[in-house]
TrEMBL record:
Presence of keyword Transmembrane: yes
Protein name: Enoyl reductase (ER) domain-containing protein
GO cellular component, one term: mitochondrion
Domain Enoyl reductase (ER) as annotated: residue spans: 317-578
Gene Ontology MF term list: oxidoreductase activity
PANTHER family found in the cross-reference section: QUINONE OXIDOREDUCTASE-LIKE PROTEIN 2 (PTHR43677:SF4), SHORT-CHAIN DEHYDROGENASE/REDUCTASE (PTHR43677)
Length: 592
C-alpha cells in the first residue's frame, strides 16, 4: 500500500512538471488530472482487491522464519497496469511538446528532448513496464521484491528528473543574441556588417522537427549565404562569430522568453546530487530488508490450506529452507511417495507440521553447495545422500545430518528414494502378487480381497501361521486368524482408510504381541537408530538379498498429485517416485 501511495506522489510530481513544461495550459492540466485520478483510483481499488485475495495465504512459515505469501494474485497486474496508462500519456505528450517547442538552430532535436527530461520519463516508463512484467510473471515471494526495486529506482530517477528540469528552467542560453558582444574594429567594416547580419539570421531562426520555422514568421534556409560579400569577408565574419563567448543568461522555460533583466545574472549553481544519493540510501535498506531470504526460491509442493493433493498446485517461488543448528541442506533429486502424504495434505495424519509446510518425507539427492556443515557431520557439499525429513517434495530440504545416509555409487537417486519399500506378500490383486513374488522376494502371494485368504496362509505355513504380520493396510484383526503362537503383529498403517479397533481377547488367545512402529518418530525419540536401520537396509541391498522396487511410472514434481492419486486408487506397487530435479540436466548445467 505504501508503494502505491509513493507511486501516486511520484505521478503527481510528474504531472506538475509536465503542466509547467506545457505552460500551464488548462486543457493539458485538466486532461492530465483526469488521467491521473482515474489511474490512481483504479490502482488503489485493484490493490485492495489484491490484498483481500492474497492476505489469507500470508502465513508464518516456521522453516523460513518469516511471513510469506504462498499465492499470487492476477489482479496484481491491474495494480501496476493502471498507472502505466498515465505514464504512457505523460511520455507521449512530453515528447510531442519537446518536439514542437521552437528552438535555435544550434540546438539538436535530441538536446531539446533531453532538456524536457524525456530520457527520465522514458526510464520511469520502462521501469513501470518492468514492474508490470514482474507482477505478471514473478514467483509470489519475489513480487514484492520487484516492487521495492522499481520503487527505489523510480524514486531515484524521478529525483534526477526534477533536478534536471530545475536546471533547465534557469540555464544560460549560449546562442542567445542578447548575450553576444562583438569585439571587432568598431569601424563598421564589411566584416562587422557580415557578422552582424549572420548573427541576426541565426537569432531569428528556430527549428522544429518539421523544418525551419522562423521566429519572425519568415521561412529561411539554413544553408543561406550572404550575397555581395567576398568569401574572405564571410569567412572572417564566421570566424568572429565562432569566437563569441556567451555571457550568463537566464532562459525561462515557464515564460518561454529570454529574460533580458537577468541577462548578467550569474548562473545558478549546478544542482547537487546529494538528494539523489539520499533517496538511494533511504530506499536501499528497504530493498535489502530481509530480502536475503527471498533471493533463493524453489519449486515446492506446499500445504497452505488442507486439501486433497489433486487440489494443490506446485508453487514456483517458495523460499528455500534455511538450515538451523545441526542441519544440512540437500538438493533433492528424487522423492518417495507415501500413502500418508495424502492424509497429511488433508490434515488427517497423526503428525501435522505447522502450515504452510512442504509435503514429502523421503528423498535422495546431494548435499547443497551452499549447505552449512555442522560439527561432526561427515558429509561435504556434493555428496550423494538419501534419508528422511519433512519437506521432500521440493528442490531443497533442510534436515538433521544424522537423518542422512551416503547413497552408494551403484544406486540411482530413484532407488535411494525407494529404499523404504516393503515387500508385500499379501495384496489385493493378482498383478501385485506376481510382482511381490518376482521382484519383492516373496515366496508366496495371497490375495486378501478373496474371502478365506487366511486358510491359504495356514496351508502355506503347514497350519502354524505366520510369526510376524506386517500390516500397512489395517487388516490386523483378519490377520490374527492366521498368526502363529507368540506371533507378532506390527501395526504400520491404515491404508484401507479407517483406524482398526481390536478386541483384546484376540491378543491373549495366542500370546501374541501387537507392536506399533512409527518410523518418523525415531528421529525424535531414538535418532541414533535411524542410520543403523538405513545401513542394514543398504547391506541387504548390496548383498542382493533385497532390492528397492521402483514403480515403473515416475512423476515430475508438477504431476506429484497424479502419483499420490495412483497410490490412493491402489494402482501402484513398489515405491512411487517423484523426480524433483533431472540429474542429467543438472550435470549438463554444471558443466556449462
Ligand atoms: N508406521 C510408519 O512408520 C509408517 C510409515 C510409512 C507409511 N505408513 C502408513 O502405512 C500405510 C501404507 O502406506 P504406504 O505409503 O506404504 O502405501 P502403499 O502400501 O504404497 O499403498 C497402499 C496399499 O494399501 C492397499 N489398500 C488396501 N485398501 C486400500 C484402500 N482402501 N485405499 C488405498 N489403498 C488400499 C493397496 O494395495 P492392494 O491394492 O494390494 O490392496 C495399496 O496399494 C499408510 O496408512 C501410511 O500412513 C506408516
Amino acid at each position: 500500500m505504501l508503494a502505491i501511495v509513493s507511486v501516486g506522489i511520484a505521478n503527481m510530481l510528474i504531472l506538475q512538471r509536465v503542466v509547467i513544461l506545457w505552460e500551464h495550459r488548462p486543457i493539458i492540466l485538466k486532461t492530465m488530472t483526469v488521467g491521473f485520478l482515474l489511474s490512481f483510483s483504479l490502482q488503489v481499488v485493484s490493490m485492495v482487491f489484491t490484498l483481500l485475495h492474497v492476505l489469507p495465504s500470508i502465513q508464518w512459515s516456521e522453516p523460513v522464519g518469516m511471513c510469506i505469501a504462498t499465492k499470487s494474485s492476477h489482479i496484481l497486474i491491474a495494480v501496476w497496469a493502471s498507472p502505466l496508462v498515465f505514464e504512457m500519456f505523460v511520455l507521449s505528450s512530453t515528447a510531442l511538446n519537446a518536439l514542437d517547442r521552437p528552438r535555435t538552430l544550434e540546438l539538436p532535436i535530441i538536446k531539446a528532448l533531453h532538456s524536457d527530461g524525456l530520457g527520465f520519463f522514458l526510464a520511469i516508463t520502462c521501469l513501470r513496464i518492468l514492474n508490470l512484467i514482474l507482477a505478471a510473471l514473478s514467483r509470489p515471494s519475489l513480487t514484492f521484491l520487484g516492487v521495492f526495486f522499481i520503487w527505489a529506482m523510480t524514486t531515484t530517477i524521478l529525483n534526477r528528473l526534477l533536478l534536471h528540469l530545475r536546471r533547465a528552467e534557469c540555464r544560460p542560453s549560449p546562442s542567445d543574441p542578447f548575450s553576444c558582444e562583438f569585439e571587432t574594429d568598431g569601424q563598421g567594416s564589411d566584416v562587422d556588417m557580415v557578422a552582424a547580419e549572420l548573427w541576426d539570421r541565426r537569432r531569428s531562426r528556430a527549428i522544429s522537427p518539421f523544418g525551419l520555422i522562423p521566429l519572425n514568421g519568415e521561412r529561411l534556409s539554413e544553408a543561406s549565404t550572404l550575397s555581395g560579400y567576398s568569401d574572405q569577408e564571410q569567412g572572417h565574419a564566421r570566424g568572429l562569430l565562432g569566437e563569441i563567448q556567451p555571457l550568463p543568461y537566464v532562459y525561462h522555460y515557464r515564460k518561454r522568453v529570454h529574460d533580458p533583466t537577468s541577462r548578467h545574472a550569474s548562473p545558478p549553481p549546478p544542482p547537487s546530487a546529494s538528494s539523489t544519493y539520499c533517496s538511494v540510501l533511504l530506499t536501499s535498506p528497504i530493498l535489502f530488508f530481509r530480502t536475503d531470504r527471498y533471493w533463493d526460491t524453489m519449486r515446492a509442493f506446499v500445504i497452505n490450506d488442507y486439501a486433497h493433493p489433486s487440489k494443490i498446485p506446485i508453487i514456483q517461488g517458495f523460499p528455500e529452507p534455511k538450515a538451523s543448528k545441526g542441519q544440512v541442506l540437500v538438493d533433492v533429486y528424487s522423492a518417495g511417495l507415501n500413502y500418508f502424504d495424502i492424509l497429511q495434505s488433508q490434515g488427517k495424519y497423526q503428525v501435522q507440521p505447522p502450515r504452510p509446510f512442504v509435503l514429502g518425507n523421503e528423498f535422495a539427492g546431494k548435499i547443497s553447495a551452499d549447505s552449512p556443515i555442522p560439527d561432526g557431520c561427515p558429509f561435504r557439499p556434493g555428496d550423494r545422500v538419501f534419508g528422511g525429513g519433512q519437506g521432500a517434495y521440493a528442490e531443497k530440504v533442510a534436515v538433521a545430518w544424522q537423518n542422512l545416509v551416503p547413497l552408494p555409487d551403484n544406486m540411482s537417486y530413484d532407488q535411494g528414494a525407494a529404499l523404504g519399500a516393503k515387500v508385500i506378500a499379501a495384496a489385493g490383486s493378482q498383478e501385485k502378487l506376481d510382482i511381490s513374488v518376482r521382484h519383492g522376494g516373496a515366496d508366496h502371494g495371497v490375495n486378501y480381497s478373496k474371502d478365506g485368504w487366511q486358510k491359504e496362509v495356514l496351508k502355506i505355513t503347514g497350519g502354524k501361521g505366520v510369526d510376524v504380520v506386517y500390516d500397512p493396510v489395517g487388516l490386523i484383526r483378519d490377520s490374527l486368524k492366521c498368526i502363529a503362537w507368540k506371533g507378532r503383529a506390527i501395526v504400520v498403517g491404515f491404508a484401507a482408510g479407517s483406524i482398526e479397533k481390536l478386541p483384546l481377547n484376540l491378543v491373549l488367545l495366542k500370546n501374541i504381541s501387537i507392536v506399533g512402529i512409527h518410523w518418523g518418530a525415531y528421529t525424535k525419540f531414538e535418532p541414533t537408530r535411524v542410520p543403523v536401520v538405513w545401513r542394514s537396509l543398504l547391506d541387504l541391498f548390496s548383498s542382493g538379498r533385497a532390492k528397492p522396487i521402483v514403480y515403473p511410472e515416475t512423476f515430475p514434481l508438477e504431476r506429484l498429485a497424479d502419483g499420490l492419486q495412483a497410490i490412493e486408487k491402489r494402482k501402484t506397487w513398489g515405491k512411487v517416485i517423484v523426480h524433483v530435479r533431472d540429474p542429467e540436466r543438472s550435470q549438463a548445467r554444471a558443466k556449462l
